[in-house]
UniProtKB/TrEMBL annotation:
Organism, scientific name: Flavobacterium tibetense
This protein's UniProt keywords: Signal
Higher taxonomy: Bacteria, Pseudomonadati, Bacteroidota, Flavobacteriia, Flavobacteriales
Range of residues in the leader sequence: 1-23
Identification of the protein by name: Lipocalin-like domain-containing protein
Amino acid sequence: MKNRIKLFALLLSLGLFSISCNSDDNEGETLAPLSGKWNVSQVGTLVDGQEILIDAPQNESGCNKDYLDLKSDNTLEEGDYDSTLAPCAIYTKQGIYSRSHNNLTTAVEGVSTTKDIMNLTLTELKLKDADDAIIVYVRN
């Protein structure tokens, strides 16, 4: 009977030890909420490892800012304000998105794109694509 108790205690200890040493699947991943409406703020690139960012030129003066609306059901809407045909006309595209660790993959009009999430806080979302192009969004 003592041997069974000792064996049970040993197995329980090993089980608890293996759980406490389990690697975290979210290592390095920020847990701030991704869903929400994000306004385009800045764009830029990496040059010799340094970020070069400017105010987003696609945001037309006098119009609302272009945006990315990531909804909780993993659908998205991209909004683009353009005054070519009418002042501050809004053009939208619908799609879907998914997040895997620090990657954001979007599919809009049959085109799938994966970007690295460089920064995600309650107020800022910074994405970088494979060509080192950066876009910074601020939460609406």
